[in-house]
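Many introductory courses stop at the sequence. We go one step further.
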Amino acid sequence: MKNIFKFIDEPVNAETEYINKTIAGENRSRLRECLKELTGEERSIISLKYYNDFSYREISETLGIEEGTVMSRLHRVKEKLKGMIDNERK
């Protein structure tokens, strides 16, 4: 017998939904502020990957750097953003 319960949605709690949307909005706002503090190249890599959905190869060709360099810089920028956001929470 298949699990039919996976098709039943949890009841919507208006207060919980409001809180979740507020938190999501605050996180987006916090992220935007942190993005402003990145260097131009760091913003470019993040923008191309996550806002334009470029592959590593496309980013490599666009910025004129090796794919491996794109991967390592993207990793470093994500870690930097994570640290910046974590520091703001304190």
